[in-house]
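Hi support team,

I'm filing this because I wasn't sure whether my run with calcium ion finished correctly. The job status page said complete, but I'd like someone to confirm that the output block is well-formed before I use it downstream. Pasting the exact inputs I used:
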Amino acid sequence: RDTDRSRGLGDVYKRQIYCFIGKNNGKIVLVYWLDLGKVQEIEDMNIVSQMCAIAVMFVIMYFYISQKKIILHTSKAFVEVWIAGLLSLFFDIFSLVAIEKRSGYHLTATNIICKLYLWTVTWVAMVAFWYICVDIFRKKELERKWRKRLWIFGISTDILIMVVPIKIYDSDNIVYTYGPAVIITYAVTVILLALILMLTKKYSQAINPRRRKSMQVWVALMFISAVIQFIDKKILIVSFASVIGVLIIFIMLENPMANIDRDTGFFNLNALFEYMKEAYGQGNDVSIVCIRYGSNENDFFTREMEKSIFYEVVSFINKLPDNYVFRSSANEYLLVFENTDSAEKTIGILERRFDKPWGGDNMTMLFGEIYYLRSTELVRRPSDILGLFQYAKRNRAEFTGRGVMLINNEVIEHIYDENSVENEIIEALRDNRVEVFYQPIYNTKTHKFTSAEALVRIRSREGNIIPPGRFIAVAEKRGLILRLGERVFEIVCRFIVQHDIHAMGIEYIECNLSVVQCAYDHLAQDFIAIMEKYHVDANDIVLEITESASITEKKILLDNMNALRKVGVRFALDDFGTGQSNLSYIVDMPIDIVKFDRGMTNAYFDNGKGKPVMDAAMGMIQKLKLEIVSEGIEEKEQFAKLDELGIDYIQGYYFSKPRNAAEFISFIESNNA
Ligand code: C2E
Ligand code: CA
Ligand code: CA
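And here is everything the job wrote out:
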């Protein structure tokens, strides 16, 4: 018999003939079936496993569709992966059935169905590749360009698969297809899988690490199953493996539950980050309203009341239109709008609602703080957004006090500026670029320079001097002032011992303390340790303090002062005559010197009012036997007048600007001689 003719007779032969001899091209062929029942079994098993896989796919889609989610580009790509996976399963089954039943049809029909299956195999690889690309190419133009390329590539491989021949092997107990069409399919698939692996490696920073992992697992599954299928052609598991891959991706990444806050049903911060990453990539500008609420200080709630109010607020926020709501912390929500007008309308609604009471009894007032980022345009990175709101919350008083706080471009720039100053301070501390300049202080009795004020500077990497006005406030705000102040004090101590200041006629150095340092309960201990380390005599040190408003801070300051005074350190009250000066401070605080601010001395010369104020203050200070330093003296006449008034010390540009250590020494050596 001709074996070609025996093909397609299908079931009849398989079940009845156990062995036969045939002739093919002049050769005798012996075909032998060992166990014909098995053939059917395996084919059935393959179909059953594909059916199971289809069921899994539908379960995934059910959970995917039934849950609330933000539609991102990656989620669209995921749906494409799902569709391709499902089509692949269907056509896998069709082709198995078509091969089996091909006797009844024209062979081309069977071939086309087998080729359609091959198409779907390449599609799965292509959409999987695309799924990774979407994560890497966040930019709209880049995405479009690559999408187009992939389409061209896909269509041309599909045409190629359609035109080249395919062969069906259906003999012994094995059914599979082979030939050029199959080779092209495998080649394309392998290339795409390899590209996926390469991309996950190359862009490991840009890709969400969970996506990277799950894609790598998926590719590994595909390879392993292909190898198994190749070794044992009876087992068709590649499509099944790819479904498991889709399942892994779903669980690890695309499960909408992972982006939902359990308590409120709103989105969580992870979702915000994904959403913003995409908005940035697409160049979409959004408006964000942050609402933070809470009870007023004197109100106490029971747990039940708290809960019921919580749900009341949640359901109120839930009804606000045109936005995505993200929960950023316990009582704080971020509402993201793609449209500025809706954002502003919603702010109005929020404001009006928080003016009214809450709770079952309609008796509870809540405060509602609103922060409004009109546009994310100037925010450089999605990860900066939360920081902006945090900053706004911390500095609310500074900007508006009550009502809506607008985070405008000015605020954003201010924050970025502060960030860069903070970095500058950290790096300066690390790289020893903190310097101290000294400004000579003239003693009107001895007509010599008998002291100096130490003033901090940072030398930038480029070698420029950054004045303290640029960084002291930032250092205080960002918690760096303690380290910075300690560094300054160490430099001053080293200066005192390295240069014999007494021999030059300098009796002590004045060193500034920030209010934060004053309110630090270990300050005295730390400073005493530094003086001991450098063997500095505490009498060589005068610390300048400024008034602080808070009572508790004042208490700690007093403890610090007393501890330091015990070892011999003296204190000066700085900036007397500026906004906050309070005569009672001079009486209360154990100080030795009062420093008149430049503004005060200027007022003395400028108009009538400054004069009596300064006269009165001077009278009182002198009665208390405290010494006075007048700061900011620039003119000869000013100096002459203050000298005549009996001010003890004079400091200002008239004598000298602050100088670095070497210049200060040479100035003193030539002027005190
Ligand atoms: P301050 O303690 O009132 O220091 C006096 C400031 O007035 C210095 O500015 C000094 O250069 C400037 N000055 C002195 N004479 C004249 C003058 O005749 N005319 C004018 N226009 N200005 C004069 P500087 O060095 O820029 O320091 C500014 C502020 O930074 C200081 O004001 C002080 O509050 C703070 N600061 C400086 N060093 C430190 C430090 O080590 N620690 C802390 N916590 N604050 C410091
Ligand atoms: Ca000072
Ligand atoms: Ca001052």
